[in-house]
Design a protein that fits this description.
single chain, 191 residues, alpha+beta, 2 domains, 7 helices, globular
Length: 191
């Protein structure tokens, strides 16, 4: 996320918890070095055993170095999250960093971080992988209109209770009249 966006969030006296992406290499390296060399303010761990997988999470919270606080509006903490376990009978181990203007304990950050992954998995991943939005051709209004239609289709598929998004898309692809009815009349009431 650009520093100007973070500055706007802070100016509006709002809170942020932002995942570090690959394009923020120096910030990520700083956090990784901090994780390896400093003692965290707090640490919390959870284990989730659902959906035929076991996921361990360890959240470590660090005070943001003064030098970084001058570059990121309101920055107070850096958070290092490790996730490891077994998914579909395959072991995995990954880590991700976050920055925040909140001063919370690791235990308090846990639900916010899990909520972030819920949004990532239920919305962004679906849009990127299923609808291939990252590969949309730039220019004009087509990418924006495509994204709007994809969100609409995603909502229809979820509202109708299909088991998977691709299954719902395949079934609705031949039911243009039914999709048009949703546009004009709304969704049927839940049963």
């Amino acid at each position: 996320m650009p520093k100007k966006t973070v500055e706007q969030i802070a100016l509006q006296q709002q809170h942020y918890l932002i995942a570090l992406k690959a394009n923020q290499q120096s910030l990520h390296r700083t956090l990784e070095h901090l994780h390896q060399s400093a003692t965290p303010i707090s640490v919390a761990e959870t284990v989730d055993t659902s959906h035929n997988r076991t996921v361990h999470r360890r959240v470590s919270v660090y005070a943001a170095p003064t030098a970084l606080q001058h570059h990121w509006a309101g920055l107070k903490t850096l958070i290092w999250v490790e996730r490891w376990g077994v998914r579909e009978d395959k072991p995995f181990h990954e880590h991700i960093g976050y920055i925040s203007n909140l001063q919370l304990s690791a235990q308090e950050f846990l639900p916010h971080i899990q909520q972030h992954w819920s949004i990532e998995n239920q919305l962004h991943w679906v849009r990127d992988v299923t609808f291939e939005e990252d590969h949309a051709r730039p220019g004009g209004n087509a990418p924006v209109m495509g994204a709007i239609l994809n969100c609409f289709l995603l909502n229809i598929v979820r509202q109708l209770g299909f088991r998977t998004i691709p299954q719902g898309v395949r079934i609705l692809a031949n039911q243009v009249k039914r999709v048009f009815e949703f546009l004009t009349q709304g969704f049927p009431p839940p049963k």
